[in-house]
Amino acid sequence: MDNINIEFHIEANVVDMVMEDIDIIILLENLFDNAIEAVEKCNDRKEIRFNIRNVNSMLILKIWNCSCKMPEVKKDRFITDKNDSKGHGWGLESVKYIVQKYNGSIEFEYGETFFEVIIIIGGE
After folding, report:
1. Closest CA to 9 of 62, 46, 48, 60
2. Are 70 and 110 in contact (CB under 8 A)?
3. CA atoms 103, 121, 71, 91: torsion sign
4. What angle do CA 91, 97, 102 make, to 5 degrees?
5. Once rounded to an integer, what is the mean pLDDT over residues 52-74?
6. What residues form DSSP beta bridges with 97?
7. How far apart are CA 109 and CA 64, in angstroms?
């Protein structure tokens, strides 16, 4: 992020991850890879905001990033815009799988200038 001058904001207040270590690593790796790749394509504003916290027995995670175009979606799946699409475009599918594994919920909000993922796990 430093190499491409991304402005990064983080708010974290976590006592219990409520997930296995490998799952949180895969989840965060895919979310951050996607956010950095999207921001890297923007010419003007380069910003990522990350918020993770426990609320009661829930883990709430939000990652927001600038974007310079609307994502393409087909059948509830985001389509990669990489030239070599084979082997790409599975990051968010991996994230969805992990969230489902923990009976969590995932929401995507996006527009021409931003993309946000909101994940809630726990609370049962």
Report:
1. 48
2. yes
3. negative
4. 135
5. 92
6. none
7. 9
The whole-number average pLDDT for the span 96-112 is 95
pLDDT: is 90 or 91 the higher one?
A: 91
Alpha carbon distance 112, 91 (integer Å): 21
Strands (E) in the chain, as ranges, are: 7-13, 47-55, 58-66, 72-74, 77-79, 105-110, 114-122
Cα–Cα distance between 87 and 101 in angstroms, integer? 23
Alpha carbon distance 58, 32 (integer Å): 21
C-beta of residue 122 within 8 angstroms of C-beta of residue 104: yes
CA atoms lying within 13 Å on the CB side of residue 59: 19
Does the pLDDT value for residue 77 go beyond 80?
A: no
31-59 confidence digits (pLDDT tens): 999 999 999 999 889 999 999 999 998 99
Q: Which two tokens stand for residue 108?
A: 């995507």
Distance in angstroms (rounded) separating the CA atoms of residues 58 and 72: 31
pLDDT at 60: 97
